[in-house]
Specification:
It contains eight helices and six strands, in the order H-E-E-E-H-E-H-E-E-H-H-H-H-H. Strands 3-2-1-6-5-4 form a six-stranded antiparallel β-sheet, with helices on both faces. A hairpin with a 6-residue loop joins strand 1 and strand 2.
Length: 228
C-alpha cells in the first residue's frame, strides 16, 4: 500500500460532510468498489484525496496522486472531459498511480469538478473487476460533480500569471495540456526554437521548474477552459 503523506488534513474548500456524503452515495448508486473526490492542491499541482468511500481512513486528506497524465483523474482535469479506463493494466493515455494499483482497481471512471471558470478537482469511481462504465453512469458522476462545484471554493489565479503576455499564456496553456514543443510550433506557426525560448521565459517569469506546477498555474488561471 502507498504510504500516506504526513501533512495534516487541510481546511476544506467544500464542507467535508457534503464530500463524504457524495462519495458514499456515488459508490452505492454505481455499485463501485470505491469512490474518490480529489482536490487540486493549491501549492504543488498534485491531487489530494479529500474524500472517498472504500478506502482506509488514513488515506483521506493525506494521499496525493499526480495531475495531468500522471493519473486518470489528472487527465480528466487537464482535458475537462470524462476519462474512462476500461483496464488499468493496459491503459496508455495516462499513468496509473500506486493508490489505484495497490488497491487492485482495474476499471475507473473520472469526471472533472469545475467551480465557475476554474477547476476544483475530480470525482472518480473504481472497480476491482473489469467493467465498462456506461454513458448514463458518467452522467450520474457529472451531476454529482456539478453539485460539488456549486459549493466549492477555489484559489484565486496566481498573481504570477499577470506577468505573462498573451502569447506566453497561449504557450503555457498548450504546455499544460501536454503538447510537445514541435506540436506547439505547428499550432502557432512558429519555429520549435521560438517555442523553446517561450518555455524558458515562462520558467523564469513564473519561477517554476516542474510541469505539474505549470499545470496548476494554468488550471487556476482558467487557461485550460474549452478545447485544446
Amino acid at each position: 500500500m502507498p504510504a500516506p503523506l504526513g501533512a495534516p488534513r487541510p481546511e476544506p474548500g467544500t464542507p467535508a460532510s457534503l464530500l463524504d456524503h457524495v462519495a458514499a452515495v456515488v459508490r452505492r448508486l454505481l455499485d463501485a468498489d470505491c469512490s474518490k473526490i480529489y482536490e487540486l492542491a493549491a501549492t504543488n499541482g498534485l491531487l489530494l484525496l479529500r474524500a472517498g468511500a472504500g478506502w482506509a481512513p488514513r488515506y483521506i486528506g493525506r494521499t496525493t496522486v499526480p495531475a495531468g497524465t500522471g493519473s486518470p483523474a489528472g487527465l480528466a482535469i487537464a482535458t475537462r472531459k470524462p476519462v474512462i479506463v476500461a483496464d488499468c493494466l493496459t491503459e496508455r493515455r495516462c499513468a496509473i498511480p500506486p493508490l489505484l494499483r495497490d488497491h487492485g482497481v482495474r476499471s475507473t471512471a473520472n469526471v472533472p469538478i469545475t467551480a465557475g471558470a476554474h477547476v476544483y478537482g475530480a470525482l472518480s469511481v473504481g472497480a476491482k473487476r473489469l467493467r465498462t462504465f456506461t454513458a448514463g453512469e458518467v452522467r450520474v458522476l457529472e451531476a454529482f460533480a456539478d453539485l460539488i462545484g456549486a459549493t466549492a471554493t477555489v484559489p484565486r489565479p496566481d498573481p504570477r500569471i499577470h506577468r505573462l503576455g498573451e502569447r506566453e499564456r497561449e504557450v503555457l496553456s498548450l504546455v499544460a495540456r501536454g503538447y510537445t514543443s514541435r506540436a506547439i510550433a505547428a499550432r502557432l506557426a512558429v519555429s520549435a526554437k521560438t517555442v523553446e525560448t517561450y518555455r524558458v521565459r515562462l520558467a523564469r517569469k513564473l519561477d517554476v521548474r516542474s510541469r505539474p506546477e505549470l499545470v496548476r498555474l494554468a488550471l487556476h488561471a482558467g487557461l485550460l477552459n474549452g478545447e485544446g
